[in-house]
Amino acid sequence: MSLRAHLEQVAKSTGEVPAELVGEHELPEALAHVWEWFCELSNSRAPGAFSLAPISYQDIEAWARLTGAQPTSVEVGLLRQLDDAFRLEMTPKPKK
């Protein structure tokens, strides 16, 4: 379980949001370019039928070819993980 998932569970159980979940968090400088790349890719994603379409490997490859970016395999993995987290967060939650 990730730290964030644990803290969210604490918040759900206690009704109090841990300080670690409140406010803005600083983006590590070493990963700023990956975040910028994700924002570029996300802004040009194809529409999905009922939700956001995932950023595909083909999308990343075409973007890299057009922009001259040369993401490593680790950075491609990070882009995909950011996309998964973004789409999960943006997916409407069912009402209870």
UniProtKB/TrEMBL annotation:
Pfam families registered for this protein in UniProt: Phage_TAC_18
Name of this chain's protein? Uncharacterized protein
